[in-house]
Amino acid sequence: MEDYINELKEFLKIPSISTLPEYKNEIEHCAKFVAENLEKIGMSRVEIFKTEGHPVVYSEWLGAPGKPTVLVYGHYDVQPVELWNSPPFEPVIKEGKIFARGATDDKGQLFVHLKSVEAFFKTEGSLPLNIKFLIEGEEEIASESLRVFLKNNTDLLKCDAVLVSDTSLYAAGVPTLTYGLRGLSYFEVEMEGPNRDLHSGSFGGSVANPINILSDVISKLHDKNGRITIPGFYDDVLKLSKKERENFKVLKFSEKEYAKDLGVSELSGEKGFTTLERIWARPTLDCNGIIGGFTGIGAKTIIPSKVTAKISMRLVPSQNSVKIAKQFARYVKKLAPKSVKIKVTELHSGQPGITPIENPANVAAAKAMEKAFGKKTIFVREGGSIPIVTDFSKRLKSPVVLMGLGLDSENLHSPNEHFDLKHFQLGIISSAYFIKEYSEKS
Ligand code: BES
Ligand code: MN
Ligand code: MN
């Protein structure tokens, strides 16, 4: 474990931020690190594929003919950093947790599978099944290049099951498999009023203020029950079955503790649904940020010329992100009056997805986690998105196992991200048991 943790530290030192162009060299450095580690652990083929965007690392060991093939997917890219208590790319361990950007999302979780494979080679000299790794650098920006790579290399990536660790445990120490992910549709909405900022005394009252208009439009996107007003938006939403609602209830989620942890005195959301249902199985729409007008210190009296909002929707099965994008753009344009020019640009998207709980890969994974954690595995859905997952199901026609090892409380995408090293170790053991368990599938 000591060696594994030291290697993880080296991995975490690389600032592989995918969305910022000035980190391009670091991204390439990180792809190389992953490739070198795959070579070191004993994989027989390792290749870095260039793409239009960031490189894809592919590796395989196919020394078990007649046995199933597992494709491990993960991402080496990370989110940008904010204000941290300690430098985000200088990993430190405190109370059994490793703190660094990417610790839980996704370097730490991904590294689990490299280390379990390494352990097999070291102790048994081989694996009981065939394994492929597909590790990308664009997950945090919606996996555009990987989608193309997948389309052009379906034979290379052929497998019986995909294994992903990039989600969360329901609670610390509770073995968890995820069977549903939300999708995403992300937009920039720009409104332009007068052709320059104006004195709000000389001109105020005579022309539309784009910030006022945009606020009005945003407020119209929900009704008083917290439902999204875009026509047709809910048409394809799969209804929660009675059984699923009951399964969620069994999890004994405490809305009170949840509110307390987040520092809010009341939770809020779509009427008629519990918090878990709202997060896991209902679509949402949120404004992520607004840029516009005077934001400096003090006061400046203006009618701003322009404003931009970043607005995204989380989608659920069986909504389609292409259809939703059209509905959104049409509706927002309809809501805007002629007094402003409006531009609606899609930034990225990902389809929602669901994998059947009963498929043999999930059954093997549930057993494996149960053995490692010493508790019964539970099945949950997830509010976040991993855009490429539905493409895996569609192109490779293989079930996807979401063996998450992080915690929602580990500050992914936030300051002071960390990963519990206990889960790192239990993850390695789960991964090893899975390889054993699934090799006996047929
Ligand atoms: N690992 C996350 C997905 C996730 C989020 C799992 C929360 C468990 C809990 C993934 O890296 C992620 O952040 N996805 C993005 C996708 C987007 C940028 C296209 C997301 O959900 O915002
Ligand atoms: Mn991730
Ligand atoms: Mn992420």
Q: How does the SSE layout of this entry go?
A:
Elements: H1 2-12, H2 24-41, E1 45-49, E2 56-61, E3 69-75, E4 92-94, E5 97-99, H3 103-124, E6 130-136, H4 144-152, E7 161-164, E8 176-181, E9 183-192, E10 198-199, H5 210-219, H6 242-250, H7 255-262, H8 275-281, E11 284-292, E12 302-303, E13 306-315, H9 321-335, E14 341-350, E15 353-354, H10 360-373, E16 378-381, H11 388-396, E17 400-402, E18 418-420, H12 421-439
Parallel strand pairs: 3-6, 3-7, 7-17, 8-16
Antiparallel strand pairs: 1-2, 2-6, 4-5, 5-18, 8-15, 9-13, 9-14, 10-12, 11-13
Helix pairs in contact: 1-3, 2-3, 3-12, 4-11, 10-12
One manganese (II) ion is lined by residues 79, 105, 140, 412-413.
Description:
The protein is built from twelve helices and 18 strands. It has helices at 2-12, 24-41, 103-124, 144-152, 210-219, 242-250, 255-262, 275-281, 321-335, 360-373, 388-396, 421-439, and strands spanning 45-49, 56-61, 69-75, 92-94, 97-99, 130-136, 161-164, 176-181, 183-192, 198-199, 284-292, 302-303, 306-315, 341-350, 353-354, 378-381, 400-402, 418-420. The strands form five sheets. The chain has a six-stranded mixed beta sheet with strand order 1-2-6-3-7-17, sandwiched between helices. Strands 11-13-9-14 form a four-stranded antiparallel beta sheet. The radius of gyration is 23 Å and the shape is globular. The model has no long low-confidence stretch (mean pLDDT 97). Residues 75, 105-106, 139, 166 line the site of one manganese (II) ion.
